[in-house]
Amino acid sequence: MVYYLIKIIITTLLIVAISEIAKHSSFAGAVLASIPLISVLAIAWLYIDTKDVTKVINLVNGIFWLVLPSLALFISLPLLLKQGLNFYISITISIAVTIGCYWLMVTVLHHYGIKI
Question: Which of 6, 51, 77, 104 could be bridged to 94 by S-S, CB 3.0 to 4.6 A?
Fold first, then answer.
């Protein structure tokens, strides 16, 4: 139980720190947010928990393929906000677009026999 609390605290602190840094410098916040800290933590936690390199490889491969459709959020959100749409509507549409891109990516990968 203590181990899970440590994992939650470390992960949460990183996210909060990045959002606080972004308040003062959008560049610094963007650099920190663009580093795949959560992915690296998930990979580390998985390895520490299982010592199973195959699971780590599968996770990393899945992350690789799913990073591509996640970029839809970072393309659509600023475009919608620049059009003057409300933030909450823009983020909702951007999330929906991203979900659609995830579905499309999984469908295409499945078609080519790539299993995530």
Answer: 77
